[in-house]
Design a protein that fits this description.
Length: about 450
């Protein structure tokens, strides 16, 4: 970028637990006119996948361009997990490029002060709901020219279960179209009504921010990224490596650079967003990341597309290590579930002999369970060590093809793809298990901003 051209501002809007539950992604009952409009003004990424189906690890990948076993956040930050010493968050990378860096609402990458991540200006208001957060962002956007490009991360607790759901809903339970992997009960339909209402409210908040950006005359020089962290907070989605847990909505707008009404179906990973933003900002892309920029794809330039994406899962409420690899047609999931003998220091409450991560409880605690969880409570929790799905024939991943002779060659190929990823990214599961001690302060870097080891 020529020295006399100012790099773009960057507005990253990041809610919880959305998956692809928007009208523009085919969810007809959902009300999301503002996000539908934003997606139409730029690119709506059809096959965009998180690298982890849980909050902290997914966001860690998004903001660093690395898989969680590379950046260190293999579990939730409020359970003690933290970045490795050599990791550079997007906020730090853009601060080094001369950006002012601002955090509004929530982040979920550290329990420490977020200045440690590279944010120079932090909105300390404790309310993290989309409405109040959007009002505070709008006030920021009303300021005169700040003299330097800026990064704003607007994080919402919406549409996280309980924390971001309103008590009532405008939606008709009879109109809800439930995914086929969930039981059809009035309680589950009632939950989806509240979930959809939370999405509707969040959409209105996003609309206010984008409208203010346009009114302030900053639309032309602002890269807007709306992206969710993982799938919806229901069994069979969040905390699983099925598409319902990993596929997320992502819309990118940059007038004059990204043509409107794009809907590329290329396989993309959320670790690709980090180098994409850095390239747009003419910032150096670190050589030690696994993500690759897809800015050329959005700007109509030659682009070497991915032939597969990967998903990882280590710790959430329990230790349930597993990986997946997904091509355009097939999904392969490999479980590394341990026994107590294999990880002798594993606390009993962290063990997952029945793959507890596969059936997300959905409440704030293990006791408070969602209606969907209760309806599935009698389901056998056993999960096989390997799963293979033909997504063309079985998009909801219900029929495991492992052991079927006509898919043996596919299974061998997918195993090989996974082994290669584990080798090239130095996966700890290549040699053993991940002890919970890694989440202690001994894994914590000194800082991500300022001098680093």
């Amino acid at each position: 970028m020529p020295a006399d051209i100012r790099p773009p501002n960057v507005l990253v809007i990041l809610p919880h637990d959305l998956g692809t539950c928007l009208n523009c992604y085919g969810q007809e009952v959902v009300t999301s006119p503002n996000l539908d409009r934003l997606a139409g003004q730029g690119a709506r990424l059809v096959n965009f996948f998180a690298t982890a189906p849980e909050c902290t690890p997914s966001r860690a990948g998004l903001f660093t361009g690395q898989y969680t076993h590379q950046n260190g956040l293999m579990g939730l930050c409020h359970r003690g997990w933290s970045f490795k010493r050599n990791v550079r968050h997007l906020a730090q990378a853009l601060q080094d490029r001369g950006y002012g860096t601002y955090l509004f609402g929530m982040q979920h990458e550290t329990q420490d002060d977020p200045t440690w991540l590279g944010y120079q200006h932090i909105d300390r208001d404790p309310c993290q709901l989309s409405g109040p957060v959007s009002e505070r962002v709008c006030r920021f956007l009303q300021q005169p020219n700040l003299g330097q490009p800026w990064l704003v991360h607007a994080g919402f607790i919406d549409v996280h279960r309980s924390m971001g759901w309103p008590p009532g809903s405008d939606f008709d339970p009879a109109a809800i179209v439930l995914p086929g992997y969930l039981p059809d009960t009035k309680e589950v339909r009632a939950e989806f009504c509240r979930y959809y209402q939370a999405i509707k409210n969040m959409d209105a908040a996003v609309g206010r921010m984008v409208d203010q950006l346009d009114t302030a005359g900053q639309a032309e020089n602002t890269l807007v990224v709306f992206v969710s962290d993982h799938g919806s907070p229901f069994p069979g989605a969040k905390s699983t490596l099925y598409d319902a847990g990993l596929r997320v909505a992502c819309a990118v707008r940059w007038p004059g650079h990204i043509a409107p009404r794009q809907a590329p179906a290329n396989l993309l990973s959320n670790i690709d967003l980090y180098p994409t933003i850095l390239e747009a900002c003419d910032a150096p892309i670190p050589p030690n990341i696994a993500g690759r920029s897809f800015l050329p794809l959005l700007c109509g330039r030659p682009y070497a597309q991915r032939d597969c994406v990967f998903g990882t899962f280590y710790y959430d409420a329990a230790y349930d290590p597993m990986y997946c690899v997904r091509t355009e047609r097939f999904k392969y999931i490999r479980s590394f579930a341990p026994t107590f003998a294999q990880v002798p220091n594993l606390p009993p409450q962290m063990a997952a002999p029945r793959h507890t991560g596969r059936w997300i409880r959905g409440g704030d605690t293990d006791v408070q369970r969602s209606a969907a969880w209760e309806a599935m409570h009698g389901v056998d929790g056993y999960v096989p060590p390997e799963e293979l799905y033909d997504l063309e024939q079985d998009p909801q991943e219900q029929r495991n093809l492992v052991g079927m002779s006509n898919y043996e060659a596919v299974l061998v190929e997918m195993r090989g793809r996974l082994r290669e990823m584990m080798r090239t990214t130095e996966s700890p599961l290549s040699t053993g298990h991940i002890p919970p001690s890694l989440s202690s302060s001994g894994n914590r870097p000194i800082r991500l901003s300022g001098n680093r080891e």
